[in-house]
């Protein structure tokens, strides 16, 4: 069984940066694809970035060039570096497998970007 705990969110001004972390317990090394998702108020959860064990990455168009996903298998951690943040990036951010597995959803970490 895997547990995922997100951290690193906060309040930041537009143009600022944050680095989110997703710490995994359990058999993290066996998970090929991991993703960062977000849910903004009144909107459905969306996938913003994904990474494979081979470090192949993919991004939503809205974050390309601004966000970078990475993973450290030795630390069982997936990161999301977010630069040039915009107010529309305000959301609760979650990590999960790709496709997501219901039992792995954690509490998420809130990112709020002020204009």
String of helices and strands: EEEEEEEEEE
- Say how many strands there are: 10
- The chain-level mean pLDDT equals 94
Biggest sheet, strands in spatial order?
Answer: 2-10-9-4-5-6
Shape: globular
- Number of helical elements: 0
Judged by helices, strands and strand pairing, the structural class is mainly beta
* Beta-strand fraction estimate: over 45%
Radius of gyration, CA atoms, in whole angstroms: 13 Å
Largest sheet: 6 strands, mixed
Q: Give the % helix.
A: under 10%
Short description:
This protein has 115 residues and is mostly beta strands.
What can you see in these coordinates?
- The chain has 115 residues and is an all-beta fold.
- 0% of the residues lie in helices and 51% in strands.
- The chain has no helices and ten strands.
- The strands form two sheets. Strands 2-10-9-4-5-6 form a six-stranded mixed beta sheet, with no helix packed on it. A four-stranded antiparallel beta sheet has the order 1-3-8-7, with no helix packed on it.
- Strand 7 and strand 8 (77-82) form a beta hairpin.
- It is globular, with a radius of gyration of 13 Å.
Can you tag this structure with a few keywords?
mainly beta; 0% helix; 115 residues; single chain
SSE inventory with pairings:
Blueprint: E1 3-7, E2 10-13, E3 18-25, E4 33-39, E5 46-52, E6 57-59, E7 67-72, E8 77-82, E9 91-97, E10 109-114
Parallel strand pairs: 2-10
Antiparallel strand pairs: 1-3, 3-8, 4-5, 4-9, 5-6, 7-8, 9-10
């Amino acid at each position: 069984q895997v547990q995922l705990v997100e951290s690193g969110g906060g309040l930041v001004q537009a143009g600022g940066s944050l680095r989110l972390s997703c710490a995994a317990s359990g058999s993290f090394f066996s998970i090929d694809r991991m993703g960062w998702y977000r849910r903004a108020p009144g909107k459905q959860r969306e996938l913003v970035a994904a990474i494979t064990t081979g470090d192949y990455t993919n991004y939503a168009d809205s974050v390309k060039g601004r966000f970078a996903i990475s993973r450290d298998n030795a630390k069982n951690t997936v990161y999301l570096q977010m630069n040039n943040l915009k107010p529309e990036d305000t959301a609760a951010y979650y990590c999960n497998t790709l496709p997501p597995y219901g039992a792995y959803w954690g509490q998420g970490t809130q990112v709020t970007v002020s204009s």
